[in-house]
Amino acid sequence: xxxxxxxxxxxxxxxxxxxxxxxxxxxxxxxxxxxxxxxxxxxxxxxxxxxxxxxxxxxxxxxxxxxxxxxxxxxxxxxxxxxxxxxxxxxxxxxxxxxxxxxxxxxxxxxxxxxxxxxxxxxxxxxxxxxxxxxxxxxxxxxxxxxxxxxxxxxxxxxxxxxxxxxxxxxxxxxxxxxxxxxxxxxxxxxxxxxxxxxxxxxxxxxxxxxxxxxxxxxxxxxxxxxxxxxxxxxxxxxxxxxxxxxxxxxxxxxxxxxxxxxxxxxxxxxxxxxxxxxxxxxxxxxxxxxxxxxxxxxxxxxxxxxxxxxxxxxxxxxxxxxxxxxxxxxxxxxxxxxxxxxxxxxxxxxxxxxxxxxxxxxxxxxxxxxxxxxxxxxxxxxxxxxxxxxxxxxxxxxxxxxxxxxxxxxxxxxxxxxxxxxxxxxxxxxxxxxxxxxxxxxxxxxxxxxxxxxxxxxxxxxxxxxxxxxxxxxxxxxxxxxxxxxxxxxxxxxxxxxxxxxxxxxxxxxxxxxxxxxxxxxxxxxxxxxxxxxxxxxxxxxxxxxxxxxxxxxxxxxxxxxxx
Length: 565
Hints:
Dipeptide-binding Protein, domain 3; alpha+beta; signal; Dipeptide-binding Protein, domain 1; Peptide/Ni-bd; D-Maltodextrin-Binding Protein, domain 2; SBP_5_CS; 4-stranded antiparallel sheet; ABC transporter substrate-binding protein; globular; 3 domains; SBP_5; about 30% helix; 12-stranded mixed sheet; about 20% strand
């Protein structure tokens, strides 16, 4: 074993990476006693997934701190109640009645002491907040000198109303839910504008966490509502004890948790290292679970090893190349088809994902309940000779933007862009690659000054419902917004998606989604590239690891195997 570690270190040294590993901060021993260490990365980290960018990797932490009304059940379209205890839907499909769980305790923290249990007020506050309804804020009393005549309070009050919720904005939740009201302290009614079969799935997504209204109102009184997102208070199996920015989060078991008590008292989430360093920390016993290891290093992990095991899960994600339909040239269907046939997607899966992904021949990932694996899917196979015949004499000069952030659906975006550039060069197309940040992209989209012809991007879903997967990136409602980077709009696609929401039978919903998908593949506003798998490596002493298609695991199910005598 020691020899294997030395060989591994030598390999990293040859790659010039050992200095990076040695420079990574070590977790203080005082924080590692009587607990488990989970190594992940700080990219996209937030204590409030509601405000995180839609389609980006969400950190596992919030799944432990908060609960949702529902959870996704067994990779299906069925949801199981969580903070909800039961639900019913009216005959016309426009009203959802939800009975809430009683006796659920909020976290008792140094910054907040709850005076009551979870109830309908918390659900109404949390949902109204993402709907943009002003009812989630305390009333601004014009006659109150503390409120109405305090300029700072007024500024705070107006700014609070401008908080964005990217995922819920992308699915137009405020155009789905008309109102939410309390029928009694433990029963709510959600009124919809139209019947919508996706609502419960959205309320089970990783973004749909429930806050404490009492805590939020306390912060509002102190003009400090932003603390809601930095000092979390939830009802989950763990609560925050310590947090050092981009270093670690220390979680403490919530001993008054309403569900089964977590078996491990302390969880330390190490945010300080990148993929390569995480695996080294794991081999050095500095963490018991390492999430998202560098895919090029997975070959170093041996099957049936006595010290560790590798776990993987099919992911609800897609990397793709989007054509900008605001550019007249990109509206040429023959050019889009030829470009798609010039790209060697199988080579991308080999070189970028090291065969830890599959070539995507559809828009809907195979893990979704609506996926029809028997359909032919994307039929513009790699055909460089055809592509060159169409493109070689056109003297095309194209700008391709690429988001310079590693996401689980694309672990090496710049390298992938260079492979695509090379493929297109063989077909006679000159591509200029420009690396951009998400902030820059947002700015350019807001100004409508983005000048890309193509953009390399991807999408990561928060549930298995195709509505939340296809609608944000392809619908007419999101045209010219940051989720629909192709700026494509086809009314027939929207009609099919809406028909799927109105259908009550799951088979009918799936059929409409697959017809909508076929329409996209025929029009080709985007080229699907790959569906990536999720990976983590765990110490053999750690049991109870269950990985979801969204990359999260439930810390409360983890436990250490007993030592054999």
